[in-house]
Every structure is written in structure tokens, then in C-alpha cells.
Fold this protein.
Amino acid sequence: MKTSTTPSYEQDALDHLMDLYEQNYILVRRLLGDLRRLHIGDQFALNAHIHAKVTNRGAFTVEINFTDEQILDKHQQPVQLSLRVYLDARSACLLYTSPSPRDRQKSRMPSSA
């Protein structure tokens, strides 16, 4: 019987990605405290220019939008990024940035989101 295995380089990349997601979770938790207590609409001023707002909440997830009012894009809109935090998996991943760091012209949604 033949079994399917993931090549070592693919597994290494996946392990690295999961480590990054876990590190993101730790950093967000350091910023906002106990993430399980967050509710839609909760807002936090992280400093004079950067604000966080909870935009969505599920049983096991929290979505948080971060806005930097000091840095403006070419349309004079504040730079934003959105994270999804997986409370049960203790990980957080980037959903989108506005503007995109790749083209600096528009918001973009990764194909995996």
C-alpha cells in the first residue's frame, strides 16, 4: 500500500508558517490582553496614531482591524491591516492590508482568506 507523504521542504515551510502564526498571536495578546474577553466594537488606542477595533467575533475567532492615522496612502486614507485570531489554535494570520504592500495602489485580499 502506498501512502502519501509531504516532502520535507513543504513540511518545513508549513512548520515555519505555523510558528509565525503563533508568534503573531503572542504579540497581539501582549498588545490587547486576554483576547477571549473581546467583543465586536471594542476599541483600543495603542498610541496617539494607532488604533485597534474588533470587527468580528465568533466562538473561536476574533477579527481585529488596526489603523495607523499618521501614515496615509496615495488617496489620503489611513493605512489599515486586519488580523484573524484563532483562539483555540492560539494563532493569528493577516487577512488584508490597505494599501497592499505589493502595489501600494489598492486593498487586496489574499486568495487563501
Notes: Residues 75 and 82 are 19 Å apart (CA to CA). The chain has one helix and five strands. Residues 104-108 have pLDDT under 50 and may be disordered.
